[in-house]
Write a structure and sequence with these properties.
The radius of gyration is 14 Å and the shape is globular. Helix 2 runs parallel beside helix 3. It starts with a strand and ends with a helix. It is built from five helices and five strands. Strands 2-1-3-4-5 form a five-stranded parallel β-sheet, with helices on both faces. Strand 1 (4-8), helix 1 and strand 2 form a beta-alpha-beta unit. By secondary structure, the chain is α/β, with parallel strands linked by helices. It has one domain (4-134): Rossmann fold (3-Layer(aba) Sandwich).
Amino acid sequence: MRKRVLIVDDNAEHCRIFQRAFEKKYSDPIADVKTALDGRDGWNIYVELKPDIVILDVMLPVENGWELCKKIRAKEEELKKRQEDLKPAIIIMVTAIGSNLNEISSPLHGADGYMDKPTDPEDLFRVIKRIESETV
């Protein structure tokens, strides 16, 4: 099954690193990986792509990652009420704000997981795998 992935980070290099890692990890079948550098573009891509996995930085221009996470969860609830078949995205907050704040704040805004920067893509894949196994 093709994975749809959205990476939202204001650092273009972080986006490229994660994008290449996801494309390599899910190369058979090929992943559909999109990136955005701010919260507004991230939202627009989310609406179009309806990703399976969303990687969000917290400190984003225009709209921060926590706001975007809440907005995504609200959209998923709206679609669920309309009985549209949409599996909720796995949302992981990846940020340099500090592990204590990230650990406390990410679940409050609807994230499934969190990681501190710098983040190794293999560590990120382990977190995704753990979350996928918990939601089966």
